[in-house]
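User: Could you write out the 3D structure of this protein bound to zinc ion? I've included everything you need below.
Assistant: Certainly. Input first, then the structure.
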Amino acid sequence: LYLAKTPGIVKPVYKDLVWNISTEKKEVFLTFDDGPTLEITDQTLDILASFKAKATFFCVGKNIAEHPELYARILAEGHQTGNHTNDHVNGWKTTDYTYFKNVLQCDKFVQSNLFRPPYGKIKRSQTRALKNRFDIIMWDVLSGDFDTEITAEQCLKNVVKHTTQGSIIVFHDSVKAGDKMLYALPRFLEEFSKNGYQFSAIPA
Ligand SMILES: [Zn+2]
C-alpha cells in the first residue's frame, strides 16, 4: 500500500528527511531510482535530453558495477546522482551495522551527499547516523510506475495531478517499472513544459 501524494501531516514528524524543495522558481525535481539498467536508463536519458530536463538518479551500487558506462553517461549529461545502497536493502529489516556497510559499499561508486532509502524504509537510528553525512531525500509524489495493478495512464495521472512547484517526484529506471515510466515521463514533461516549468537536479 502506498499513497501517490505524501500527506502533509507526515512531513513534520520526520523533519530529518527532505520531502520537497522550497524554491522561488517554477521548477520540479524528477528522480529515478534503482538503475542504472540496460536500455531503460538510456531511453530515460534520451527523453530528458529532448526536453532539456535535468534529474537525479538514485543508483544501486551493484547495478553501477554491472553498467559503469550507463552511470558515466548520467554524469556526462549533467544529472545528479545519489546513493540507494549497494544491494537495495530494506532498512526496517536490516541491522544498523549491515545497513551502513551497504551504504558505504555504494559510496565507492556514487560520490554524492544525497541518499534515498530503498522502499522509503529507514529506522530512526539509521536516519540519525546517516544525516551527518547525507541529505536523506524522500519525495512528495510517487508515480506508482512499479505498481503492476495500475495502467500507464494512471501512472501519468498520478504525477500530473499531484505535482506542484518544488515537488520531488519518484520514477524508476528499472525493468519492472520501465514500460509505465517511459509512457508517463515524456507526457509529463510535455505538459509541465507547456505550463512553464523547468526540471532541475536536486542540489547536492
Ligand atoms: Zn529503490
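Strands lie at 17-18, 27-33, 56-59, 80-83, 114-115, 135-137, 141-142, 168-172, 198-199.
User: Perfect, thank you.
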